[in-house]
């Protein structure tokens, strides 16, 4: 008997077998959500030999925090994170403040503050949660190929050391990133193709330590503030905030770049040139130059679309992957698919698609729109945007930076995907049965 009174094996002799391809944020969250839903046979396949978590800072929005709390991961993450009290949107060339928004209302309105932290902390907490679940097994150094879907999913696993072998399962979930082989196989089965489109944007990811910044009072003040700052300019911006209990200043940029469409790296990641980075932001203010100049040569990382299948301008990439996982934890609950029939599992996945597709696509487009608006060059459109920023100082109107706009936040943070999934399952005739 399971924790929630659901006997997973009541209609068969074996538990429902779930396989997940990829152990990134989405794969880890899927495994944990399904284990919390009382599945007992979950295997995660990962091509890397281990989960040596890297990366830089990440924004931890309330819609993500709500799910992580339900999964038992949030406290560990929040203990190392920094709560954002305010955001400042500034002109990159002058450091003039265009708009300022206090963020204290977010905690009061949505039950969780808006925080910022380290990606390694988020991924590590999810992984720790998975390791506490006996239902979850990890297969590292494993490449997946030859994926088929009927009558039940199957695929070939090729270990880095060892012979290939075949796996059959009841449910296969592809969480293998923007270059997903699982997606390619599924679309091929449907007679479709979907090539990855390069956005023409890339990002420098930088982390400066307190020790590096301590001799510059102006920069040190940035590290000690509870503030997310965005410096905007034509076709580019810099966004930065303190993480790791204010021991690290996380800096992320966005600017035009055409080098990643055919990048050989599975993550579109390469070493960046400090000289080129300084040139890209050459017309930014002296304080920005001093900040970027602190980066040691050889420690500039340049990343492309793989890090942001949705562009980063709403800070919702990881949050949406975690929402996917939470919804799957509801629609694929053992009590809903206990008969193991492919048509029942397919119905559950169709409900997942119905809940997630429209929302995810809308947020992807809204992020792209926000990027276009923040990257305006000189002209009438920029003048009109800056008038809206100016109106903020009198407490009137929307925030042109949609990430900081209260109405957009309500749409994103106020959405409880678990409640929506439970409601949809009831409406579609797929209730959880004991």
TrEMBL record:
Domain of life: Eukaryota
Statement: the UniProt record of this protein carries the keyword Oxidoreductase: yes
Domain FAD-binding: 17-366
PROSITE patterns: PROKAR_LIPOPROTEIN
Keyword Oxidoreductase listed: yes
Positions in coiled-coil regions: none
A matching Pfam family: FAD_binding_3
Keywords: FAD, Flavoprotein, Monooxygenase, Oxidoreductase
A single GO molecular function term of this UniProt record: monooxygenase activity
Similarity field: Belongs to the paxM FAD-dependent monooxygenase family.
Stated name of the protein: FAD/NAD(P)-binding domain-containing protein
């Amino acid at each position: 008997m399971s924790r929630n009174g659901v006997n997973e094996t009541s209609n068969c002799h074996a538990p429902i077998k779930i396989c997940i391809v990829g152990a990134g944020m989405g794969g880890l969250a899927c495994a944990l959500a399904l284990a919390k839903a009382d599945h007992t046979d979950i295997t995660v396949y990962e091509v890397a030999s281990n989960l040596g978590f890297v990366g830089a800072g990440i924004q931890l929005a309330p819609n993500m925090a709500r799910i992580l709390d339900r999964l038992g991961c949030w406290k560990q993450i929040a203990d190392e994170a920094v709560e954002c009290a305010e955001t400042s949107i500034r002109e990159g060339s002058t450091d003039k403040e265009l708009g300022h928004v206090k963020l204290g209302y977010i905690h009061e309105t949505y039950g969780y503050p808006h925080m910022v932290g380290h990606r390694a902390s988020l991924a590590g907490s999810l992984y720790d949660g998975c390791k506490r679940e006996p239902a979850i097994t990890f297969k590292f150094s494993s490449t997946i190929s030859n994926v088929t879907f009927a009558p039940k999913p199957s695929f070939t696993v090729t270990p880095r050391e060892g012979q290939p072998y075949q796996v059959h399962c009841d449910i296969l979930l592809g969480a293998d990133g923007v270059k997903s082989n699982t997606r390619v196989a599924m679309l091929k089965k449907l007679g479709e193709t979907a090539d990855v489109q390069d956005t023409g944007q890339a990002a420098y990811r930088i982390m400066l330590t307190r020790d590096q910044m301590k001799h510059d009072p102006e920069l040190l003040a940035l590290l000690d503030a509870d503030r997310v700052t965005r410096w905007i300019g034509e076709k580019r911006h810099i966004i930065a905030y303190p993480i790791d209990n204010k021991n690290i200043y996380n800096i992320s940029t966005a600017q035009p770049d055409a080098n990643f469409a055919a990048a050989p790296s599975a993550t579109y990641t390469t070493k960046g040139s400090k000289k080129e980075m300084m040139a890209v932001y050459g017309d930014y203010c002296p304080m920005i130059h001093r900040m970027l100049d602190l980066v040691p040569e050889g420690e500039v990382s340049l990343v492309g679309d793989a890090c942001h299948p949705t562009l980063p301008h709403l800070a919702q990439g990881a949050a949406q992957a975690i929402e996917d996982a939470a919804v799957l934890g509801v629609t694929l609950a053992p009590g809903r698919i206990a008969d193991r029939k492919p048509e029942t599992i397919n119905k559950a996945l169709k409900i997942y698609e119905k809940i997630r597709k429209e929302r995810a696509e809308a947020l992807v487009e809204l992020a792209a729109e926000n990027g276009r608006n923040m990257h305006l060059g000189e002209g009438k459109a920029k003048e009109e945007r800056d008038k809206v920023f100016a109106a903020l100082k009198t407490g009137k109107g929307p925030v042109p930076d949609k990430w900081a706009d209260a109405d957009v936040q309500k749409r994103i943070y106020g959405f409880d995907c678990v409640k929506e999934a439970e409601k949809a399952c009831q409406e579609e005739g797929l209730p959880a049965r004991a």
